[in-house]
């Protein structure tokens, strides 16, 4: 009886041990399976993360490309837009000064007037007074004035200066050029968008010919249509005066004649002149 009981206890213990081992193995298998499943689930997550990283990198590349494209478009637009380049056009003009005999000033707008009585041998000097013009342009009180007023003020300022203070650019005497008497010429090259000022002085004239008034010339000169002239003609007027008659003066020696000399002259004129 005791042996059976002991045998029963041993069988029960063995069964319990086997059952426990199976349960532990099952739990271990389930845990391993669960971990494997979790790992399999986690792996796609990493793949997703990698895909997300790729997508973020792609998005970053797209974002960089997009941020770069506006610059390219801006550069393209800038290259297509015309640049504001300073007008560097230079105007060449030949200035012809013809000293004429006239009582009226010719308003020719720079154009040539034919059949004028010119005077040869008159000396003219041309000064550049652009610096005075620039000083006036910086004064607010001198802005928005007519050309006539500007020329008049320039002339007044230039007259107050000595010739040594002015910049001489040309000088010479009038002569016959292309069948036109009384002409002196000089050439200038000036910017199209910037005014230059010249002060023209008639320094001397032939005998019995008056000097012409000083002239201020603003260049470049254009016609009524606003077109720049290639040749600019100026006609400073002058007048001719009649030569003065020479008056002979009797010079006294200061020696008085005596009574006998006066009598002799009286009888000589009385008898011999007849």
UniProtKB/TrEMBL annotation:
Segments of this protein annotated with the region Disordered: 28-86
Pfam family name, one: GramPos_pilinD1
UniProt xrefs under InterPro entries: GramPos_pilinD1_N, Ig-like_fold
Protein keywords: Signal
Amino acid composition bias (Low complexity), ranges on this chain: 28-52, 59-77
Leader sequence segment: 1-21
Residue ranges of every copy of the Gram-positive pilin subunit D1 N-terminal domain listed in the record: 105-237
Highest taxon of the lineage: Bacteria
Name the record gives this protein: Gram-positive pilin subunit D1 N-terminal domain-containing protein
Gene source species: Enterococcus faecium EnGen0180
């Amino acid at each position: 009886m005791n042996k059976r009981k002991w045998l029963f206890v041993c069988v029960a213990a063995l069964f319990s041990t086997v059952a426990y081992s199976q349960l532990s193995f099952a739990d271990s298998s389930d845990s391993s399976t669960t971990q494997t499943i979790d790992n399999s689930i986690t792996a796609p997550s990493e793949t997703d993360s990698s895909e997300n990283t790729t997508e973020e990198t792609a998005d970053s590349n797209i974002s960089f490309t997009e941020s770069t494209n506006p610059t390219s478009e801006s550069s393209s637009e800038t290259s297509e837009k015309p640049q504001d380049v300073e007008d560097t056009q230079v105007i060449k003009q030949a200035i012809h000064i013809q000293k004429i005999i006239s009582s009226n000033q010719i308003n020719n707008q720079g154009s040539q007037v034919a059949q004028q009585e010119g005077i040869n041998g008159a000396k003219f000097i041309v000064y550049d007074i652009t610096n005075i013009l620039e000083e006036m342009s910086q004064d607010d009180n001198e802005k928005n004035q007519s050309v006539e007023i500007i020329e008049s003020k320039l002339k007044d300022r230039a007259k107050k200066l000595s010739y040594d203070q002015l910049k001489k650019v040309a000088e010479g005497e009038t002569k016959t050029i292309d069948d036109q008497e009384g002409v002196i010429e000089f050439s200038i090259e000036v910017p199209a968008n910037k005014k230059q000022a010249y002060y023209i002085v008639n320094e001397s004239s032939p005998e019995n010919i008056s000097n012409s008034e000083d002239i201020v010339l603003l260049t470049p000169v254009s016609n009524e249509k606003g077109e720049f002239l290639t040749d600019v003609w100026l006609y400073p007027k002058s007048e001719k005066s009649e030569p003065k008659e020479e008056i002979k003066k009797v010079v006294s020696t200061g020696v008085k004649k005596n009574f006998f000399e006066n009598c002799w002259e009286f009888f000589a004129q009385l008898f011999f002149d007849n």
